[in-house]
Design brief:
Blueprint: H1 2-14, H2 25-56, H3 76-84, H4 87-118, H5 124-136, H6 143-152, H7 159-167, H8 171-182, H9 186-194, H10 199-210, H11 212-227, H12 231-236, H13 245-249, H14 261-281, H15 283-290
Length: 297
């Protein structure tokens, strides 16, 4: 009896009809145009990456070669970066600085987003709009005032000062997190209050676990922003022992007579590696975190 049932199920699976939608000619053309556009954009994106990688493995000091790919591949430039520069020190300083900035921004942004989303207080709407308006002004406008304070109190060459400067002004992160918190049903928060939970309990036990993916996205954005920041970093950190990746790379191309583009390219490839690795490891969290709060109940 069991054998007959199995045979019938196999026959049903074999006879199962798969329906496929037949595309119209205009839909086929639109699909091909979309594919061609994507291929062109991929080529445009990959071209500078391939150019920098090929330059990093070329001999000499010029960025451009007689051919797009070097005639002879070598890892000499990578070896010279480690031997003649403090690249590992720059990388260590950058990782410490960027991690601290990202953590401080999370500590400041997450409670603010929760307050603007789930709490009711005077000035809530105007306060959020004020943060957004302040974020519209470029950071260069604040540079003279900030540097005046730094030089007055002799705060140069202090990474902690740079961390505090870069960690502030995270209105964009607050807006992103607020959208994610808005996606959490109010009924869930109200049920916790009815059960006797305090505001801190609701925030730490209910809100934070549901924001895990979005927290990873905010951490990554803050990390990349601090990793590539040059203006304040070059103005505050002058000593060699506190240099970061962005200020260290400048040493290869500081003027047109001493520019060493091949070493610069190899250092740039290695400097970009941590960001690429982080993106690869956190890819699934980034995809889900970016759409957090996009669907409202």
């Amino acid at each position: 009896m069991q054998t007959e049932v199995n045979l019938k199920s196999l026959v049903r699976k074999k006879d199962k009809v798969v329906y496929k939608k037949k595309l119209r000619s205009d839909e086929i053309r639109a699909a091909w145009f979309g594919r061609i556009f994507i291929w062109i954009m991929i080529a445009i994106t990959l071209f500078p990456i391939v150019a920098v990688i090929s330059a990093s493995m070329a001999k000499g000091s010029a960025f451009t070669q007689t051919t797009f790919f070097p005639s002879e591949w070598t890892l000499e430039n990578y070896r010279r970066v480690f031997e003649k520069t403090n690249f590992l020190l720059w990388l260590k300083n950058s990782l410490i600085l960027c991690t601290a900035v990202a953590l401080v921004q999370l500590v400041l942004s997450v409670p603010a987003a929760f307050a603007f989303s789930k709490l009711r207080f005077w000035g809530r709407k105007n306060g959020l709009m004020s943060l957004l308006i302040l974020q519209m002004f470029p950071a260069a406008m604040a540079l003279p005032a900030i540097m005046g304070i730094v030089f007055t109190y002799n705060l140069t060459n202090k990474p902690l000062v740079l961390i505090l400067i870069l960690a502030g002004g995270s209105a964009y992160n607050i807006w992103l997190l607020k959208g994610a918190v808005d996606g959490i049903p109010d009924e869930l928060v109200e049920a916790a209050y009815i059960d006797g939970a305090s505001t801190w309990k609701v925030f730490s036990v209910i809100i934070l676990p549901l924001l895990r993916n979005m927290l990873i996205v905010i951490f990554l954005f803050a990390f990349i922003g601090a990793y590539s920041e040059f203006m304040f970093t070059s103005a505050i950190l002058k000593n060699a022992e506190v240099q970061t990746i962005v200020t260290g790379l400048q040493k290869f191309i500081k003027d047109q007579f001493s520019a060493n583009w091949t070493m610069y390219s190899s250092a740039a490839v290695m400097a970009a590696s941590p960001i690429v690795i982080i993106f690869m490891l956190l890819q699934k969290y980034i995809a889900s975190g970016l759409v957090s709060g996009s669907v409202k109940e």
